[in-house]
Each structure stands twice: as C-alpha cells, then as structure tokens.
Amino acid sequence: MKPAPRPKQSRLALGPEAEPQFAGGNFLKGIRLRREAVPSFENYPFNIPAVRTLDRLALHPAVTFFIGENGSGKSTLLEAIAVQLGFNAEGGSRDHQVSTHPTHSILHEFIQVERTMGNRATDGWFLRAESFYNLATEVDLAEEESRSGPPFRAYGGRSLHGQSHGESFLALLTNRLQGGGIYLFDEPEAALSPQRQLSVLPLLHRLVYHRSQLVIATHSPILLAYPHARILEFGEQGIREIAYADTEHFRITKDFLNRPERMLELLLGDEEADLKAKAR
User: Fold this and answer.
1) What is the pLDDT of residues 160-173, one digit of tens each?
2) Which of 40, 47, 67, 85 is the most buried (most CB within 10 A)?
3) C-alpha to C-alpha distance for 271 and 67, rounded to whole angstroms
C-alpha cells in the first residue's frame, strides 16, 4: 500500500520550509523597556497595560503586526520605536523634520532597540495616517525646490497632494520604498479601500523579498493575512502573540460576512426596542 502523499506546502508557508528569500531584513531583534529607569508606572504612557507589563518584545525578521483596541498602546509603542530609531514623530524618512504640535509621549526615552550585529538598514520610513497630510506638504515643498532631477521622481512623478490619500500612500509604497530598510506603518488602511488593501499585500511581499523589516499597527484583517509575520495583540493583560485565525479582526469579520442579516438583527434589535420605548 502506497503511503498517502504529503500535502503540497504553499510557497508562502511559514516554518522551516518557507522560502529563505522571504526571511526579511532582520535589522531589529526586539525592543526592551528599561523598567528600572521608569519614574512611575502610574502615569501615562507607563500605565497602559501593554507598556506596564513590557520587559522584552521580540520582533519578526520580516513583518510584525501590532493589533488591539483603540487606546491599547500599539501606536504609542510604534511611535516610540520610530523616534528611538531617529524618525520624526510625525512621520517620514530620517531626513524629514515635520513638526506642527508635538504630541508624542516620552516612551522613546525608556526603550532600547536591540539591533542585529553587522546588519544595517539602508532605507527607512515611518508612515502615520493621521499626519500624512502634513508630511505630503513637506515632501511637495522639498521636491519643488530640489535641483537634483525631475520633481517627484521618487514618488511616481506626481505631487502627493495631487493624488487622493490612498493613491499617495500607494505611490510612496510603490516608488519611494525600494527595500533594504526598516518601515514602520501606523494604521495604513485608514487611506485604503478593501481593494487597495489587497493591492498592498504583494507590495509588502516585494519589500520583504528585498530584505526589509516592517512593523505595522493595523486593524485590517486583510493586511493581517500576510503570512511571513508575527501578530502581537495588545490587551489588558499585556502583549501576546496570536494566530491570524484567532484574532478578533478575522473572527468578527468572518462572522459578519457569513451572516450579515442575523448580525444586524442582533446589533440593531435592542437599539430599536430602546428607541421605541423612549418614544412612547
């Protein structure tokens, strides 16, 4: 009797059989909170559970996702990593120094970034959806004043303000980020339709192929599906690694799309009853 054939593993599969060229940049091994230097864990941002319980956090060599509810600390920690690495708190490359009204926390002063010895990134970018407009203005002014070549060459040949929010982000991802870098994205899906989010997945794959390392704070179940990644969930008990299919992003979206009528009935039924009772 012939043995049952082994199921063919996807070329995107993780583990020891994953293709080595998708190992990522592996520039950062992890981050560590210098707990002994923290003045008080009763004050912000150290009273956020994800920060209060933080000791050392290992990063995936290719892609690490930060997920969690609003206020869980994922963007706060991502911002601290960015500032510690030399990026402006409002985003951009290390050359951009945009500053409107400083609002970033002091967390960056108390974390230590663990780098891989002998492995240096040649590029980098910190993308913040909430301050991308200000950054686009800075980029446009710099490009218009530049004498080094055609304007906006690194951004697809068009002004970032001459495109929609989503188009300008994709222009950045497609043209400016060429690999070999550390890329930090804070909720990039804010600018993207579901179709555009799907188009980002192969662009992430390209960056990983070209030895990049990404850390992404997101709510998008589409982006979270990228396979060469570690998903870290920020919650009341701290930070834990979680499988994609176990995330609320996947489960809630799947449940809703499988039974939209039933889900709407449950969600709106009690509210309608309450509204009718108040109208009497």
Assistant:
1) 666 676 787 888 88
2) 67
3) 29
